[in-house]
Amino acid sequence: MKFKNIWALALISLAGSYLYGQSGPNPGDPNPESKGLITGTVVEEFSEVPMEYTSIAVYRTADSSLVTGTVTNTNGQFRLEDVPYGTYYVEIKFVGYQKSVHSPVVVSRNNRIVDLGEMTLSISSETLAEVEILADQRRVEYKIDKKVVNVSEDLSAAGGTAVDVLENTPSVSVDIEGNVSVRGSGNFTVLINGKPTVLDAADALRQIPASTIRNIEIITNPSVKYDPDGNGGIINVVLKKQNEKGTTGIVNASVGLNNKYRFDGLLNRRTGKMNYFIGGSYNDNVYEGSMIREQTEFLDNGVEEHNDATGNFDFIRGGYQLKAGMDYDVSPKSNLTFEASGGQYTFGMDRSSTTHEYTVPATNDLYFVNTNVMSRNSIYFSGNLNYTQTFDTAAHKLVAMANFSRSTGDGTDMLEYLEANENFEPFKSALSQKNRNVETDNGMEYRLQVDYTKPLANGKFEAGYQARIDDELEDNIFQVFDPDTDQWNAVDENSSEMSFFRNIQGAYVQVAGEFRKIQYQAGMRGEYTHRLIEYENYNTAYEINRFDYYPTLHLARQFINDHQVMLSYSKRVNRPRSYFLDSVASYIDPQTIRIGNPGLEPEYVNSFELGYQKGWDKNLLAFEAYYRNTSNLITRVTDYDSDAGIFYQRFTNINEDHVAGSEVMANWQFAKWFNLNASTNVYYYRIMGYLNGQEVDNSNVSWNANANTTFTVTPTSRIQANLGYHGPTVTAQGSAEGMYYINLAVRQDFFKRKLSATLQVRDLMGSMKREFTASGNGFTQYVLMQREPRVVMLTLSYRINNYRTEQRSDRQESGGGMDMDSGF
Q1: What's the CA angle centered on 810, arms 666 and 467, to 5 degrees?
Q2: What region, left, alpha or beta, does residue 581 occupy, with left being phi > 0 and alpha being psi -120 to 50 degrees?
Q3: What is d(CA 740, CA 703) in angstroms, rounded to the nearest whole number?
Q4: pLDDT (tens digit, 9 = 90+) per residue, 291-345?
């Protein structure tokens, strides 16, 4: 308790002293003879939002020699001291914006203090043949604290989802099942326009059509304004939003080989103070695949039991979504926004396989035909109300948000295995079985948060509060089919009703400023968590009450000539989902059962990053070094029960893991018709702890690489190739092999860019796979899964009334630089 009081006192003292010391501007008067001061503020022309990290360079008019330079602070302000008397021109630059030059700027004895006032930058664009064509954006923009993926530049994602966009993105990996990981961690938070989503992170990314996304922000070391959840950080999906007056919209339709269909549309109308939008999407996709599994159990009597299976599967993804919203400018300084979305999300997997069970020395020789059908259906709704009140300046504001979301769902996981002859022809046998899990769930989430931002003389002060309540009820019934009565019979000892309740109360304080040209942002977040899990059938409960602190620190130094360095630290948490906690068993196949662990504790992560960037006009080189340590590591492990002949997959907390690596990224335009975006990530991974009383200490060095090449054939024609490689890595019980892939896409625009057609081929070489080995006490296991290769998709997009989202800057949605205004 004393420790908590010390932290609270330290935070209050820090905030108070900072506010006192930074309470107002003090430009001063440069005393040195023959030297003066140049000041000013840079804002974005379209949104009037202050632009931080904007480069300011002062050149001598006589010979164009560079005299001095700096960057703007978090309020868009800059201050250049000790400028010798003379005549200059001031150049203002920011990536993706038109350069602005102010001339002449005269510093003299009679004009020592030169205030350039408020200056604006506009998004770069050009006019060709009376058709406005926006300058090509980089597919990936490397901000000093995040990566921004511009979806319009990713042709291979056309007709796909957010997962397809992330497939060829630095720091991100996607396996053949569509599971996303950020620098090796599958635990991350997904936000949509900076707000939470009712769906799980993986489901949300699979559900959002790529055609509705403007950009995706990958933030690996967020500030305390965001939820601390997710080891891998935050993926913020920024959706398209139109701001021009009148009625505009966009419609997209996609079709692919082997039953792949998608449709979505968005209609927007702005009149005066009101802006309305309505949209919807529908998708129905099937992805075929194949699998091989080889298992060996070593019995105490020296006998080996082998279980070899081969088969095929279909991944099924489908559903629909409707969304609508409105913006209302209550006054010039206040805005009210309401958004609502709802729909149905379905996914499943149909798997059929044949199994050969035999022993060495030979005593048993059995054959089975297996069918596994898994289906999930969820109906969801989310409503969000935002109110923004600005004060004396646009940066001085109070933002309040209330969110309610609810989801109800049901699912069935049916497994049938029939004994067969050596030709895999089934026959009636006592060994044949058929069972299923029937699951229903009902969940609600409530959120309330308030964020306050106050600009100071050379920085800003921020504080906020959040309440988050999750309430979920799951009912699982295990049933066995009786062929004699043709009925399903419940097995009570394997059925249960689980209630999950979690209440999180959090608050943060954060200060940002500049000291001797080093920009800093330091914050502390405190959270109280109460979690209660109860099982009706077992009359047992698992409860957690705890208070945690999450500090963050960001330091940045911007140099002239587009050099930038940043150092950051954050502490984060991964709270186990109800799927990991549910102790009711479910069959994966006849020999494998998955079971959760209600006693799981949260993971805690300490993350450090060092970043460097250098820009040359349209080219950029970025480097990141990172280290991440996770304690209480949640790990999926496999145990073998030799008496029952069953493999159990369960979740447990292993001591810790360590990841240290470096990532090099480049955006390079070799010619007007050829652009390359590439990255490579080399890392060291080590997992340590104890499992079933035995020490675990596995490590390896691996690497990943991505390359995206774009060829501009004509102003309306482009060809793009994506190449990726994911290297092998180790796990707690074995290792996973590497893989590579190649995607190709061609885009053609028609009718003054009102209509676009994109043809793409994904996994051209058929090389995407998931291959791993595992071993434990008395067993070894090998699994290979491959998804259907050469997936061909055709996507058509039609813009209504010249709909353009690129004219809307992303600085309002997410806040540039270290200031991440979209999250809590």
Answers
A1: 115
A2: alpha
A3: 12
A4: 999 999 888 888 899 999 999 999 899 999 999 989 888 888 898 999 999 999 8
